[in-house]
Amino acid sequence: MYYLRNNFFHCILYLFLIVSLCLLISCDNSPKIDLQAQITNILFEKDFDALKNFSPNGLELAKKVQPELSYYIALQFLEMGEPDKAKIFFEYGKDKASTLVSQLCIEQLLLLQTSGERLSTVRQYYKANQTQIKAKLLLAQELYNQGKYAEVLAAAGLPDLKEYAVPPKITEKDSPRQKIQLKEQIEIENSLSRLRILAMIKLKKAPAFDYLKTWFLFWDTSTFHSEFLTDWLSFSEEEKKNVFRDHEAEKEIFPKIMNLRVSVFSAAYVQALPFAKEIPLENVTESPLVFSDYGKACLYGGLNTAEAVDIYKNLAERDLNAKNIFLASFYLARFYEKQGNFQLALASYEEAMNHAPEKDNYDNALWYYLKTAEKVSFSALVNALSHYMPAWNDASYFSDLLFEVSEKLLTARKWNDFVRLYVLILPYADSDVIAKYSYITGRLLSENKAVNPFPDYSKKEAAEICFKHAYEDVHSEIYYRVLAAEELDIKIESVTDEVFKKTLNPSFVQNTEIEDLLLGYAKYGYPEKVFPLFKKEYRSVSLPIVIELCKNVSRSGEKDSALYSESLKIISWAVRNPEIPLTKEVLELLYPVYFSEEVKKASERFNVNEYILFALVRTESFFNSEIVSKAGAIGLAQLMKPTAEDIASRLKVKEYDLCNPETNVLFGAYYLENLISRLNNSTLLALLAYNGGIGRVRSWVKSSGHLPIDLFLETVPFSETRNYGKSVLAAASLYGYLYYDKNIHEIVSEVMSY
Q: How much is the CA Rg of the chain, to the nearest whole Å?
């Protein structure tokens, strides 16, 4: 009997425990998930009334949602003008959220707390995160703000002076992620340097000048150097005098060096020049960074050229280290070039290249050497390229120069010179440069406008080889790949497989904390914060996160259409990252169909193909319906007021708003259709006229000598209009493929008809 009763009680106890556990799980999880979803929606919508009603007890709410949400909830309470509630959530996030969000919570808390609370907060954070340089900075900054100068030095530490004279440096060997981390580290170290030196000055410490001098002579100038100079101006004469008490000879010169460096950093070269003039040359050569700033002040500040040549000839003849010989020769060359003494300039650039201490210094001097050679003659440029191209380090560094030269040759109709240059640069130039040169050379050969540079092949075979370079090689020039496919009679059916090729980066390192923060801004009410942060960190954000960011930010565009443009900026920046493959999903984000109803309506009314209208709007405004250009063009289709007034008169519209998407797209479609009808039904000419004006386009056509339309486009003298035409064609091709079941051949044929 006892056994049965005891067994019965055990069964009841087990049943009670199981039921309790089930209830606990139910109470702990299901409502939490529902609550999370509700808060997410409230934050996304920025429904301040709902948030107020939802959180009468802030701490209780904070405990029931993910810790990271505390940060975004607090930001919204700040917007609502309720700092006390915001502090509750920032406090909770500081203690419970991830490291990055915790830091952001602390930064916000410090703006809301009393001095005592602030110091307690940063001490607590530093104690828990002593290995983090950011924690050290937060503590040192707060201690300085409260006048605790001795404690600033204890918190910030005083590095060995010899080690301090060799600051951390970003190198070409560093991965993209390492470069970001180093850049942040250098910024924090500069901030700590400012605080250390200020604290030493306040404490009248003897090493203050040694650290001040080292910081200004051997570290790249930063905003913190600029802030220090402002601090310096606020010091009393007694404080300044005390800094130089053991360095009397530096008292007059060193403030001028500080002013020179900060002025050049701010690009205030005219302001920098008087300081440069008062610095003795022996002080200029003490530091390559000061020497470089001295040169910029002389060059851009307006120093008399003859005087500058004398100064730099004197400097170049001195016994200098390699870096300073490079700088002396480089700036001497710049001033010879300014004088018009191109041969002397070329010789000095060569001297600079011979003493270049680093690869980027060499490429920089070579870039100017090539620009100067071009001023001498085209033959001089060809000879210089032939001699030096095998030795350049970064081919992309010279792409702008080669693009610029190509435009000059094409607009001058120097076809044979263009082809000659193509053959020369083919083994060495950047892939995007080669794509352009290859396609155009192929077309010039096809049209019998240039001599065949490949004697082992017929002109037809040589042209085909060029088109294959433009189509098959890995590059980002969509326009030339599409046109090369036309010439090769390749009917592109799959844009992803055929048109886009990218080499993925095996060293990609994902930063999940940054990804979470970006997603938080996108999902919890702050989509406008996403792109500025993403632009800095895009190399460490994975494809799924990029896609989610774009979708969330564009969803916010339903409330604020400017965010459509922000979403487009995110994906446009993202595809710079080799880790982001150009899948169809990515292409749809790159070429979205925002304002589809407005585009469809305008397209039907004025018989303009939708994919061309989408391409025009994307190219003109990036789908920002309220954007106003510097020239005064307004809205999605970027219409000038006089043009809009004329269109409104023709359409008998008395009142209109160019920031209204429907009106703007309607006017833009009418204007494009009108231009097409006035330019022999040529869509491409109409697009060029849309950008550059119909009068100019007619003049260009008249003087073109009946060039084929693609070669005509290359000879358009306005680079903006030239690039505009190419951009719209590429975009129209993708819109047609992605949304209208068109192959690229059909669209190219339509747009390029002449």
A: 32
